[in-house]
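Case 397 in the screening queue. Each case pairs one protein sequence with one candidate compound; here the compound is S-adenosylmethionine. For every case the pipeline is the same: read the inputs, emit a complex structure as tokens, and attach any notable structural observations.

Predict complex for case 397.
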Amino acid sequence: MLAKVLLRIMKFIFNLGRQSDISLAELYSVFGEQNLNPLSNNFAVLESDNIPENMEKIGGSYKLSMDPIILELNDWDNISNIVSEYIKSGKDPSKKITFGLSIYNKEINPKEIHKIGFQIKKRLLKDINSCRYVENKDKELNSAQIINNKLTKANNAEVNIIFDKNNIWIAKTIFIQNITRYAARDFNRPFRDTKNGMLPPKLAQIIINMATEDKRMTVLDPFCGTGVVLQEAMLMGNNIIGSDLNPRMVDYSIGNIKWLKTRFKIDQSLKKEFLVGDAQVIKWPHFDTVATETNLGAPLTNIPDRLHFDKIVKDANRLIESFLKNLRNQIDVGKRICIAIPAWKLPNNSIKTLGIVDHLSDLGYNLIEFKELNSQELIYLRPDQVVGRQLLALTRK
Ligand SMILES: C[S@@+](CC[C@H](N)C(=O)[O-])C[C@H]1O[C@@H](n2cnc3c(N)ncnc32)[C@H](O)[C@@H]1O
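Case 397 output:
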């Protein structure tokens, strides 16, 4: 008789961050849509029988928590009791517990959080020897507080208290993005190019995750610039091909990848190739997918006069259209790619996107649809920026 295998389905909660739609699209690309659902503002819940691996490869979601309990909204009156029981369960009472609280989607000031924190501490001290509460400066603990106080370690806890429309979710953090590690591979690179703008490594990871599958692939960046996408693609375990119209940029990419290999653990068997060439006409060596930030046009602090702006938009349209035409003859039907193209914030705060976005089908591509998201609105734009990036996840038709 076959033994019955029981799987324990666990729930994991991702904090999606400021650009929540883009982060969610990335998670759908990595984990699939079936077991992943948005939860209130800025969160998503994954049901899985495995703890998500390689969270360091996820660019958009900055925190992962697990083992949630779901409360009624009026349980808030009893929150310190509930949270102290939650923290205590599974902990060794002879060891010190350090804990902290982060509260989401609720108007509350840090003083009130302190009060709850100290009530929890008092309750915990009835059953355990030693306990420390990490005080909040804000509603949410920051990454340094979580890492420095080792709150993701076994006998400690950061408890996330998340309000949605009907419930309160309580969950403990198991992963937090390490900002210092991102900074080390961003700001310490020997070759940088401030003129073309800096692609944040986290956004490069998102683009790569939206273009790749969970296996080693050969990732092409046809506008490689200083090589941020190439760098992240290698760190994520992929072979790389980088090309750029500007030979100096190709040299920068080569130099940065050489540097990366001296500073970070990279699989020595990974292959890399660099070429100088115009993305509109070049013939690339064999690749599996494309992850790229195309030319974004002139860096802008304001939208210029009509004539000037129309020319910027027209040039960008023309370049990306002929790049996509060149690419379509070199990529197999059904293959997925992800490209970041320019989009602009207009003075009235609306977003100007490129005309080609409405003609992708004529160009030989389908825009990938994502559950509960508008695929045409995946726009990465910091509040102080005029030139943003529109992410297009495409399949070759
Ligand atoms: C926004 S930058 C990309 C920056 C890059 N993500 C990085 O990590 O530095 C765009 C790049 O496209 C290149 N470029 C512009 N026109 C091109 C073309 N027709 N073909 C290929 N590359 C081009 C520029 O030289 C520039 O390096």
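Case 397 observations:
- The pocket of S-adenosylmethionine is lined by residues 193, 196-197, 199, 222-223, 225-229, 244-246, 249, 278-280, 293, 295-296, 319 (CB under 6 Å).
- The chain has a mean pLDDT of 94.
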